[in-house]
Specification:
By secondary structure, the protein is of the alpha/beta class. Helix content is about 30%, strand content about 25%. It has 30 helices and 57 strands. β39 and β40 form a beta hairpin.
Length: about 1100
Amino acid sequence: MASYSVSLSSSAATGTYVTDGHFGANALHDINISATGDFLPNSGFAATVDALDLTRLRYPGGHTENTIDITRLDNGQLRAEVRAFMDWVVANSAPGNPIQVTVVLPTKVDIPAAQIEAFVYLLLEQYGDHVTGLEIGNEYSIGPRDANFDRSSHPETNPDSNFVSSMTEEEYGIAANRVINAAQDAIDRLARDQPGLDHDPMILLQLGDPSGAGSTYKGNGSWDEANEAILQWLDTRALGAIDGAVAHYYYNKSHEDSLAFDGDYQQVRSIDERIANFNTQLGREVPLFITEWNVLNSNDNQLGMASPSVLLEMFEFMVRVEAAEAFIWPLQHRTANTIGGNRSATDMDLTAGGAAFQMMIDSLSPETSTETGHTEAFESMVTGWNGTGNGAVEINYYASPYHDVLYVSLRDLSPGTVRVDLQPFLAEATSVQVTRLTMDRTSSDGLSDLADADGMNRLGRRTIDQAELDALSRLAFFDDGDKNHLQVLSGGGYRTYLPTASSIVPLTTNPRGLTDYYFATEVDVDPLLVSLSGDFLGTGQVNASLMPYDVVEIVIEKKWIQEGGSGNDRIIGGLGQDVVLGRDGDDWISTGEGNDTVKGGFGNDMLNAGTGDDSIVAGAGNDTVYAGAGNDLIVAGTGIKIIHGGAGKDTVRFDGTRAAYTATLENGVLRLRGDGTDARLDGVETLAFRDQTVAVSDYLSQLGTIPVGQYGTAFNDRLNGTTDDEFLSGDAGSDVLVGHSGCDTLIAGDGTDLLIGETRGLYGSDASAQVYRAFQAVFGREPDLNGHQYWTTQLASGAVGLDQMVAAFVGSAEFQSTYGATSDTRFVTLLYNNVFGRAPQAAGLSGWTGELANGMSRAEVVRHFAESPEHLGLTRAAQKAFDTTHDPTEWTDDVYRLFRAVFDREPDRGGFASWTDTLARGADFGQVVTAFMNSPEFLATYGTTSNTQFVTLLYQNVLKRAPDAGGMAAWTDALDSGTSRVAVVTAFMGSPEFVSRTAGDVVAFMRAMGSDDVLEAGTGNDILSGGLYADTFVFEASDDGRHMVTDLEAWDTIALRDFGYANAAQALSRMTQQGDDVVFQDQGVTVVFNDFELAQITADMLSLG
C-alpha cells in the first residue's frame, strides 16, 4: 500500500470566488419534467432540487431543439408545459431567494422571429422575476449532420423521429442573429408597454465549437475561426445584445491517459482560451456560462468513485475561469453520470459524484450575515504541495475569512494512506472537521447498470473489444454464461455491464470471488460519508487510509482578525468568529453572529458585537456598546460609556473596586461614576468589580429601587423590547423605541421619535417610500424586508439623511459593478436607461453631465433621479403595493375571513399571528388558501363532496344561507369547466356579502384578544406604528408637533388627553379627510392617520380625557 505525506509548499490567491451561480442544474423536458398530465417536475427531481437547495435551473435543456418547441403558443398564450414548469418555479421559490431560470431558445429549426418575440414577451411578462437568461440554442455543432435537413418545422411535430441536424457556424450565426433580435424586440416592447417590470434577462451566445460533426472546422481544432464565423453573421444590434458566452464542459480524459490531473488543454477543453478569443473578437468582455458540465457519460473509467475527484477538479477550473454560472448535467437521468439518481427515482438518490456536488454546496456556498450584510465567500487558492506522488494525491483548496476547505483526493487505482500536514492552516484555527467520501461496498454488485430495486430502468450495456474481454475473462468472478458479464452480438461484437477491466482492483493476492475486488468505476454504488475523529488541532495533521479515488474533505474553522489604524475605521465582520482591534481613532465596528472579540482601543468608538457570546473591551474614550444577544463580557474601560447588554446574561467588568464608583438611577438607567469611568447600563445582569462580583438586581436592591423598563437619555437612544410586556421611555433626543412582541408601553418624550409596537413597522411613511425608490433607482430592485426596515428606521429617525443613505448605496459593490468605471456621459445614460427605462434627451444628458463636471457627486445625481417626479410616477403603484403586501396589519381581515370561510370558525391567536406574518413576508395568498384547504379540518367536511355538494356547503357555512338557483348554477358550471375549488373558496371569501357580514365580527375578534401596545407621542414630529392587535395611540394637548400613525385599524383606540372635548363629536370635528389620510388638528397638535377614511373612525375608537 502506497503512503503519501503531503505538505504545503506555496499558496497564492487567485481573486476568483465560488458563487451561488455555480450550483445550477438542468431541468430537462420529458426526463425531469413530465411531458404529459400535469407537466410538473417528477417527484425525484423536485426532491433533489429541494434537498440541495438549488436556485439556478436551465430549462428545458437541449430538448428545446428536438422534443419540445417551447416558443409555440396555444391560443395566444404560453403552452401548458411552460406555464406548469414556471408556476412550479414560482411556488417553490423562497422569499428573497427566488429560483432563477435560464431558458434555452431553439435555433436548429427556422422558427419565425415573430413567434420567438411573442413567446419571450409573454414569458417575461408573466415570469420575468424568475427568468434571468436566454440561451441561444444548444450545442449547435454537436450531433449527426445532414446537409439536406429540412429546418422548416420543429421535430416535435414529427411522430416518427425527433432527429435534428447539427449546424455549421454559418447556419448557427444566421439563426442566432434572428433569435437574438427577436428576443431583444420582446424585451424592448415589454419595457415600453410596462416599464415598471424592468425585465432584462441575459442573452447568451454559444462559443465556437469545432469538435462537433456540424462544424466547418471539425478536425483542425480552430475554435478561433469558429468564433469568427459565428460572430460575422450577427448584426450590430445582436452583437450589442450579447451578455455572455456559453460552453459545455465534459471531462473526456480516460484514466488510461493519466490518473493525475495535469491541467492540459484536453482536461479543460480549451475553454479558457476559447472565451478569451471570443471576447477579443466581440470587442468587449462578457462572462462565461457553463450551462452543462460533468464527466462525459461515455467516459467509463472516470465514473463511479472516480468521478468525485474529477468534479472537484472541474469545479476548481470553472471558478478560476470566472464562470458566471454553471449547471450540472444531468441532475437525474438514466445515464452513467447522473448526480441525483435515475430519472425514475422518486427521491434524491445521490451517486458518488452527487455526494461530491453536495459537499461543495454545503461547504463552499456563499453565506451572508443577516446582522452586518457581510458575505462569506470562498476563494480558489493556487497551491504547491510536497509529497503528492506526481499527482497521485490531488488537493483543491478554498479559503474564506472564517474557513479553509481542502479536498484531498487519491487519484490512484491502489489503496493508500495519506497524511496531510495542517500546520500552515492552524495559526487562528478553532476546529477541524474531516469527512471521508468513499464507497458503500454493501451497495456494490459489480454491475454498472443503474438498476432500481426491481432490476428495471437499467442503462444499456457498454461495448467492449476482444482485448478487454480477455482482461475481464481473467477475473475470478467472471462468468461468460451470465449475460450481465457478457453478451455476444450477432455481428461478432461484445457488450457487458461490468465496469472497465482496468478499474476493477483486486483486494487480495489470490482473489476468489466478487467480494475480493473493488469496482472503482461502478457507476451506481452508494457513496458513504465517514466522519474521521482525531486531535487534528493538537497533532497538526490528518491521517487517512483511502481506497482508490476516495476524497477527504477537511474544513478548518478559524478566527478572522481585523485591525484598525490611526484613523476613524469602519470594520465589519460576519457570520464567524471575529477578532477586531480598533486601535486609534473613532471607530465603527460591527461583528454580527459568532462568538467575537472586539477591542475598541482609543477614541470614541461604536462597538456592535451582535449575536453570540462576545468579549468586548471598550478601551479609553467615549464609547457606545451594543453587546447583542448572547452571554457577553464587556470591559468598560475609561471615559463616558453607554452600554446596552441586549438579550442573554451579560457582565460588565470595571477596573476599580466597588467602593470606587458612585451609583445613581437616572430615568431608570443605572449610572456608575468613578475611577475615570462614567457608564450608563441597560440590559446587563452582572457587575464585576476588582474586589467582588454582584448581580445587578442585588446591586439595585441595595440602592433602594428597581427600575421597571428601559429609559432613554438626552441623546438619541434605541430601546429594544423583548417578548415580555415592557415599558420603554425615550426621554429627550430622537429615539427609536421597538416593543417587539408583548403588550408594551412606548413613550416618546421630546424629540423626533419612532415608536414601533412590533418587530416591523413604518409602512406608509415617507421614509418607507423613499427607501423603496432609492433601492429601485440604485439597484434596480425592490428592497428585501430586513434592508427596507433598517434603512426606513435609519431615515425616519434622522440617524441618516436621504443623501447619506443614497451615498451608502452608491458605494456598494452591487452598484459599482454596473456604474463604477464609466464616463460621466455613460453614467448618466445608464441612469436614464435603468431608472426611467428610456434614453436621455439631449437637454437632460447635457444638464446632468454639466452638474457632475461642476462638482456634484454621483450619489447626489442618483438621489435626484430617485426622487424625481418621473420616478415617483413610475414607482408609485409598486411602492404602495410593497408597503401593503409587507405590512402585517393589512392582512388582518383576510386571515380572519379565511379561517371563517374555510373552517367556519374564528382563528386561534397563534394561527392568526403565524399566517398574517407568513403573508406579510411575501407568501402567495392562493398558496395559503390551498394549504388551508388541504388540512384535515377542511377535508373532513368538504373532501369527498361532489361539486354540487361542495357549493351547497360553502353557501351554508360561509354565507349562512341556502344557495340561490342562479348562484348554484354559476358555481357548479364553473367547477365543472375546470375552475379550481381554491378559486371558488377565494371568491366566496372575498364576496361583498361575506365581507359585509363579517366586518363587525373582525373588530369584535381583534378587541376580544385584549389591549396590545400603548404608544404615546411626545413633543416633536413622531411616527407611531402599532402593528397587529388592538393598540392605543395617545396624544396630549401639550404634544406639539406633526405626528403620523402609519397603521390605524378599526379596533385601535385614539386617546386624546387634555384637549377639553366633552364628547366624540367634538373630537371628530377636528378631523378632516385629506387625500388618502385623515388629519387631526387642534391646539398645535397635528396627527396624520395614514391611508384611513374619516368615515371609518367611530366614537368607540375614541378615548377622551
